[in-house]
From TrEMBL, chain A:
Classification via Pfam families: Mal_decarbox_Al
Organism: Acetobacter nitrogenifigens DSM 23921 = NBRC 105050
One GO MF term attached to the UniProt entry: transferase activity
Official protein name in the record: Malonate decarboxylase subunit alpha
SUPFAM superfamilies reported for this sequence: NagB/RpiA/CoA transferase-like
PANTHER family linked: ACETATE COA-TRANSFERASE YDIF, MALONATE DECARBOXYLASE ALPHA SUBUNIT
Matching Gene3D superfamilies: Glutaconate Coenzyme A-transferase
UniProtKB/TrEMBL annotation, chain B:
GO MF assignments: acetyl-CoA carboxylase activity; carboxy-lyase activity; transferase activity
Signal peptide: none
Annotated source species: Acetobacter nitrogenifigens DSM 23921 = NBRC 105050
CoA carboxyltransferase N-terminal domain boundaries: 1-249
Pfam families per the UniProt record, alphabetical: Carboxyl_trans (PF01039)
Gene from which the chain derives: mdcD
Gene Ontology terms: biological process: carbohydrate metabolic process; fatty acid biosynthetic process; malonyl-CoA biosynthetic process
Protein name: Biotin-independent malonate decarboxylase subunit beta
Domain of life assignment: Bacteria
Keywords: Transferase
Length: 547, 309
């Protein structure tokens, strides 16, 4: 007779072992490591909440203190692997296998650890891909999460940076796992219940508030004339052309420039209310001028952004907020919104090859994917229509047949020469060399060429929807690659023919005057300007101030 | 609606050195000396595989402000950090000496406008740069001794650091905006030598609380505070040309006295809000955050004046 309740029995055993270190659900910070020793077993799948922004950093440092002789071979399943402590787990031999999405600052350390065999890599996922696997074959045994505050029953207020927490907890708590939350404070009553206490086993008041990285603040002071030119090209050649109302922006300076041009150049083009009204977007401070100018109907957020909380609380018609007045973000929901409910993704990349594949991998760094491959992909399951989606689909099909389905606009913006004058256009992506070096079966590609619809550079737009074969695509890309070796190797006649067909559009074809592209066109030219636009509600982190 | 103070353009901080000169002087009056067409460039940068600039990042010449002749020097902070080097230094010193020589002649000027935007000495030409700073100080004091005021205008991205901070302190009058910074040892240098506990250069609010325009004008390191647009700098330059104190032993003694009193009153403070509290400002912590109008009101209501210099 098979035992059908092994997981529940196992859970009960662990909870009993941990009980002496807790007062009800509350665990003192000093007892946290001892409690973890009782709850976690070698070989467990552990989610040590590392999100894109929020980090369960105290629990991470506690876990790094356990003896690898007692606990080893953990399988870490978390979206963001961004703290040094996360890497320590592998270096010390506490953890062995890794499935993740994004690494940011640890991208170099992960590549080295992989090279040295310290990490056994499962896969690099997009966010919702990893979240999906939490419910199929990567369900955590133990989740260590972060919240703003909790009551003694474990009711959790995750606040503006809710991010991944509900998704992690749901998968763990309903599959006999153990959920432990670090909070900044234990309170009598939480402002709102983001996660019901029923799903939380232990809460620990951490000695320091959890760490949050301001990832989405782009200083308008650093936007260049060339990025402004690209933003003008995009507004005239894509926003005005396809009129996408629902969209997501990447985090680069090129899209920040677009946000800052909406109230000025966009207004001049008569686009207010016609484009960019509904967003799946992190709280970009650079969008404040457009919001204040009446461009934006509503925004759903993956996470929050340091300094934006007071502004968002004061704009509940635009942002999703709880009854307590603060933002509620949710990465799973917002990624899903970006996949199915947006007509356009536009973002920057580092490298593009001749088939339009793009990557942010350099030979010694594995930054992961985050959400871009999901945002930047055409959802084949989509069945509702919009004008922008249908227009893109008709262009791809070359006509308007009875069964022509739409396409999501996936736009890559890139300056022909990137940082350190490195050409952005290459014959072969660096990620292929990395994959060969680390014996990866699949080279990390951010967005595959068949999902990309447009490439925007300071030389113009390559519309890949209108390309009919691989040669068209290659010459269209070479045609906007400027003076890079890839651009210099273009076939002049073919590129001219593509321009006649409207596949390549130069600034002059669009009526964009490069001489007009200067910083005076920006609705805000400094972080201080953004504070002024927000009526003093935005309080930027100190590292972005120049006053 | 775009807030009025954002469209009020062009901004000093954003503008290039050439655009600052254009906005500062009467239209069509600027006559450049050793302009870019003459291509007097740094002979050293090529050794470091660094691109030179046709004007070596400094623009010097003569023009008019409100119909009166002035000499003008502008550093381009975006080229090599606006640094003092062999060629750029020689252009500055040469113009200052020419101004002294022409004092009292038909070529005489009413003032020298010094548009500082510099991190100090150019490290690739360190010896020449150090000499340039010393010679600039000597020549600048010569201009003042000839009875011609030298007005420093500080509000660029690079601020006025290193030797640029010393040169600023030697001027007859210092005009600054919120974004302007004046100091000798830069924040990164302090952090490198003394550690982030001593000075965290990435804490930009701290950097501006210590070196920024508001703190400098409240402490007397600058004399006039202006909003950050070019027109405000122009108005202040024209005004302060007539307000400069005479370059006499009495002025120097008064300045020494003022600095000694400042040191004894605030020398033990760790941060500027402590100073503001001790000086009796109502809301010391709010000084960086209030807008320019409120700050100007604060300055005028407290009648903060630093006559010496």
């Amino acid at each position: 007779m098979r035992d059908w309740t092994r997981q529940k029995t196992e859970r009960a055993t662990r909870m009993d072992a941990a009980a002496p270190f807790a007062d009800g659900k509350v665990v003192a910070a000093d007892n946290a490591t001892d409690m973890l020793r009782r709850v976690i077993k070698s070989g467990d799948r552990v989610c040590l909440e590392g999100d894109n922004q929020k980090q369960a950093d105290f629990l991470a440092s506690c876990l790094a203190q356990v003896d690898p002789a007692d606990i080893h071979d953990l399988h870490i399943v978390q979206s963001g692997l961004v703290l040094p402590e996360h890497l320590d787990l592998f270096r010390l031999g506490i953890a062995k296998k890794l499935d993740f999405s994004y690494s940011g600052p640890q991208s170099g350390a992960i590549a080295r650890a992989l090279d040295q065999g310290k990490i056994e890599l499962g896969a690099i996922h997009t966010y919702i891909e990893l979240f999906a696997r939490y419910y199929v074959d990567l369900t955590p045994n133990v989740a260590l999460i972060a919240g703003v505050c909790a009551d003694r029953d474990g009711n959790l207020y995750t606040g503006p940076n809710t991010e991944d927490t509900p998704t992690i907890v749901e998968a763990t708590a309903y599959k006999s796992g153990v959920v432990i939350a670090q909070v900044n404070k234990i309170v009598d009553k939480v402002p709102r219940v983001d996660i019901p206490g029923d799903q939380i086993d232990f809460v620990v008041e951490a000695p320091r508030p959890f760490y949050v990285e301001p990832l989405f603040t782009r200083d308008p002071g650093a936007v260049t004339d060339s990025q402004i030119l690209m933003a003008m090209i995009a507004l005239k050649g894509i926003y005005a052309e396809y009129r996408p109302k629902r969209l997501n922006h990447g985090i680069g300076f090129a899209t920040a420039a677009i946000e800052l041009l909406l109230p000025t150049y966009g207004e001049k083009l008569g686009l207010r209310g016609e484009v960019a009204t509904h967003w799946a977007l992190n709280p970009h401070p650079t969008l404040i001028p457009a919001i204040e100018s009446g461009w934006v109907e509503q925004i759903h957020c993956f996470g929050s952004e340091v300094g934006m909380d007071r502004y968002m609380s004061a704009r509940p018609d635009v942002y999703f907020t709880g009854k307590d007045g603060t933002l509620r973000s949710n990465r799973l929901m917002c990624q899903n919104a970006g996949l199915y409910a947006c007509d356009m993704f536009i973002g920057s990349t580092l490298q593009i090859d001749l088939a339009g594949n793009s990557s942010t991998v350099t030979p010694d760094r594995i930054a992961g994917f985050g959400g871009a491959p999901n945002m930047g992909s055409d959802a084949h399951g989509r069945r509702h229509v919009s004008d922008a989606w249908l227009k893109a689909g008709r262009e791809a099909a070359g006509g308007a047949g009875p069964l022509v389905r739409g396409r999501k606009l996936v736009v890559q913006m890139v300056e022909t020469f990137g940082e350190g004058m490195k050409p952005a256009f290459v014959e072969e992506l660096d990620s292929l060399a990395l994959a060969r070096k680390l014996n990866m079966e699949l080279a990390p590609v951010m967005i595959f060429g068949d999902d990309v619809t447009h490439i925007v550079t300071e030389e113009g737009i390559a519309n890949l929807l209108l390309c009919r074969n691989a040669d068209d695509v290659e010459q269209a890309i070479r045609g906007v690659a400027g003076y890079t070796p890839v651009g210099m190797a273009r076939d002049r006649a073919k590129v001219e023919a593509l321009r006649q067909r409207g596949v390549i559009r130069r600034p002059e074809d669009l009526g964009v005057d490069p001489m007009e592209a200067n910083r005076n066109l920006l609705a805000a030219r400094s972080i201080r300007d953004l504070v002024t636009w927000s009526d003093g509600l935005y309080s930027p982190p100190s590292k972005f101030r120049n006053w | 609606m775009i807030p009025e103070e954002i469209v009020r353009s062009p901004s000093w901080y954003e503008s290039s050195a050439r655009n600052r000169i254009t906005g500062l002087l009467d239209a069509e009056t600027f006559r450049e000396i050793l302009g870019p067409a003459e291509r007097v460039m740094s002979p050293h940068l090529e050794l470091f595989d660094l691109p030179p600039a046709f004007d070596d990042g400094v623009i010097v010449g003569r023009g008019q402000l409100d119909g009166k002749p002035v000499a003008i020097i502008a550093q381009e902070g975006q080229f090599m950090g606006g640094t003092f080097a062999e060629v750029s230094g020689a252009k500055i010193v040469g113009l200052l000496r020419a101004v002294t020589a022409s004092a009292g002649t038909p070529d005489g000027v009413s003032a020298v406008l010094l548009l500082l935007d510099t991190g100090g000495v150019r490290l690739q030409e360190a010896n020449a740069g150090e000499l340039a700073v010393s010679e600039t100080v000597r020549a600048l004091l010569g201009v003042r001794a000839a009875g011609i005021p030298v007005v420093a205008l500080v509000g660029g991205r690079a601020g006025a650091f290193g030797g640029g901070g010393i040169v600023t302190a030697c001027c007859s009058h210092v005009v600054i905006s919120e974004q302007g910074r004046i100091s000798v040892t830069g924040p990164e240098v302090i952090e490198t030598n003394k550690g982030a506990e001593e000075f965290d250069s990435r804490d930009r609010a701290l950097v501006w609380r210590i070196t920024g325009g508001r703190s400098r004008v409240l402490l007397g390191g600058a004399d006039s505070y202006v909003k950050g647009d070019v027109a405000s700098f122009r108005a202040a330059a024209a005004r302060s040309r007539n307000a400069a104190p005479p370059f006499t032993l009495e002025t120097m003694a008064a300045e020494q006295d003022r600095l000694e009193k400042r040191l004894s009153s605030y020398g033990d403070c760790r941060d500027t809000p402590e100073i503001w509290a001790r000086a009796g400002l109502a809301d010391p912590a709010s000084v960086p955050d209030i807008d320019d109008d409120a700050f100007l009101a604060l300055l005028s209501e407290r009648e903060i004046k630093h006559d010496a210099r």
